[in-house]
Amino acid sequence: MTCDxxxxxxxxxxxxxxxxxxxxxxxxxxxxxxxxxxxxSSSGSYTCKGVKGRTFSxxxxxxxxxxxxxxxxxxxxxxxxxxxxxxxxLSCEVDKTSTGWRFSWYRTVPTLTEQSYSFQRLPEAGNGAxxxxxxxxxxxxxxxxxxxxxxxxxxxxxxxLYSEPQFLWSGDLQPSVSLRISPNTTQHFTSKSLLxxxxxxxxxxxxxxxxxxxxx
Length: 216
Known about the structure:
This protein has about 220 residues and is mainly beta. It has no helices and 16 strands. The strands form four sheets. Strands 7, 9, 10, 12, 13 and 14 form a six-stranded mixed beta sheet that branches. A hairpin with a 6-residue loop joins strand 9 (about 100-110) and strand 10. The two termini are about 55 Å apart. This is Ig-like domain-containing protein. InterPro entries: Ig-like_dom (IPR007110), Ig-like_dom_sf (IPR036179), Ig-like_fold (IPR013783), Ig_Fc_receptor (IPR050488), Immunoglobulin_dom (IPR013151). Pfam families: ig, Ig_2. GO terms for molecular function: transmembrane signaling receptor activity.
């Protein structure tokens, strides 16, 4: 932050700095006040005042500084259960009140370490990285697997955390069953009941039902 004394010479001034009307620096011979690194606790309303001998400048207008924790991107995939050749829409969301983000899209690759992933960046498509959505249009079988997104802005670039992995699932190249979830919502809560039904297209007799989760 820089304190500019308007109508006065730039030399021989000392500077006082205030946070939320409380004096934080009594005298500073430089007109610049640097906070490095910043923390969430650095947030506040800052003002400054010039002092030259017994002469005091007026107090500056207040500048509000807001420091937030590193945001985390949220990825949504629709649909998550696919037939071969279906297009898939990925959407990446950061804080709805912020703008200027550029988005990156990745396919997750499991590493040898349990519950750990490496990321393979997907090529930009459509209108480029400023779009918060990405469409997968597979030329072959459905690209089952995990996907994440991340956003960044500013110069130098400040990145969000990676989103939690979201997964695409599909059956055989010629699927014969479809999975239905009831209630059909994107969010479910503990202690509530959830019905999964596996519907075979055609003759349903003689089949054995199997359940698959992320772990197997």
